[in-house]
Amino acid sequence: MNKDIQVSISQKDDVSILQIKGDVTAVTGETIEAAYQKVSAAGAKKILLYFDKDGYINSGGIAILIGIASESRKNGQIIRVTGLSGHFQKIFNMVGLTKYTEIFQTEELALKDF
Amino acid sequence: MEDETLKNVQDPSKEEKPQQELEKRIFHLKTLYDLSQEIGFLRGTQEITKNLLMMMIGNFGASCGFIFLFDTSRGKMDTCSQRGLPKETVDTICEKIALGDLTWLNKITQIETFDESISAQNDKREKLFDLFSSFGLRIWVPLSIDSNLRGGIGLGDKLSGDPYSSDDQELMVTMAHQGAVAVENAKLQQARIEALEQSKKELEKLSKAKSRALDHLSHELRTPLSVIQGNIRILKRKIQAQTSPLVRQEVFESLEKNLNRLSDIQQETDQIIRSYQALETRQQPVESDGSQPLSLERIDLYSFTNQILGDVRKQAIRREIQFHLEGDQSLDVLTDPRILEDILVGLLKNAIENTPDEGMIRVMLEQKKQWIQIKVMDFGIGITKENQRRLFDGLFHTLDTELYTSKKPYDFGAGGKGLDLLRARVYGQRFKFDISVGSQRCNCIPTDQDLCPGRISACPHCKKPEDCLSSGGSTFCISFPMRSSIELEQFEP
Asked: What's the CATH number for B204-281?
């Protein structure tokens, strides 16, 4: 597994986009958490997590995403997800993350009617 | 057309269920693999337990989780991590564990689920139920490291709303075992490191005490030696008329010779102690005259070595040894010439004193990868493997003390007390060059007790000089890191 991760933040209208490049683990996930806290502190209510299709997400990384999803519910934020491979879409569904977030095939579809 | 929110993945059709089950199992197996990779090399209990908890939460899609290890021997919480629980909840749990009756920790040996529909079945279950169920934890896996370190992992409801299946429970137990092994290894490793650090501290203390004792001894020797030397001079003057000149000369010569030898030993010991102190404090050694050598110069290695070799040959003029200087004539090094001279003279002297007459010494200059090397190769008696280990320690002589006789420098078997080699090691540390040795003890005299006659033609094992040359010898190698031409240009000779 690659220990490096890059998370860039961009804005499209009122949606904060967190572009995630690299493998998501308990350790690298802290960078995503930090980015999420940053956009939340700036008042973001709509957040799109844009994953790298080749990226790997392990159980530790999913725990980080569960934490973000849970906090977003408390904060009244909407989280949407795109860029996931078919395998990880199923994993997200299996662990129940799709009850907190919605997964879209493309960025355009995710941004549409956020 | 594909559903844009992919809600179809939430409710798989009958055909898709086996595929989904397969992917789930692959994911669980991958989790086990990742867990071993993530925690197997961690050395901190807190890091291990935190990672274990995260992997469990992610793998089962749990809403929250809590993990702790309690040290029953110290009555103290060893490790505690949580995710998704309010801080106050965690504080309350920790407080209750620390203050409560901990006998239940030993009683819980199996996985427990907290289903509110099932009433408490026994005391053991009731206590757990009360404590954890109220905080939203639904399942508990005991974690036992040893007889003292016990605890467990609690997970909250699954986000999916599904109950924890028997497969889930089996996997949780496996993951908990994996975590327990990693913690045990980390604790053992920590104990080893602490024991090593303790030993190191004790050795350092002993080494300092030894240095102080030697320093004191050397200092204490200096005064009485000076007094004796002075008194002998007075005595010599006073009894000049009372004894025959022949007796007087014999007695005083013997007295003075042995006294001078004692004085030399004291001075050399003093130098060794100073060099050791320089090694311990990582400073450059102070010269006997008090000067501090540090003057980098670009040195033409071939002509410099040739000149040193010429000087040394003059010193060893009485010895019948062939000297050869070979190798690259275009090499430059950047160092203090006095230090290089000191080391080269020391190595050549050492080589001469260990090479029998009619023998040979070769000095080779060469570049090997990023290093410029000076090799002093003798075909002498060589050094036993045991002695090679102690070679750079100072206070070392390759001949047994009993066999040691006082000889002139450069005589065969004269040898000092290893001061030259110790100094080379100190200089190497200071001026960033490496010094190493390779040696083969002469196969005709394999132990330190076996003597070399000091002349090849007198050796009963050698029929011709070549027999000696192939029987043993030592090579000392000084390696200087290569400098760039820009660096060297700044130090034009």
From this structure: 1.10.287.130
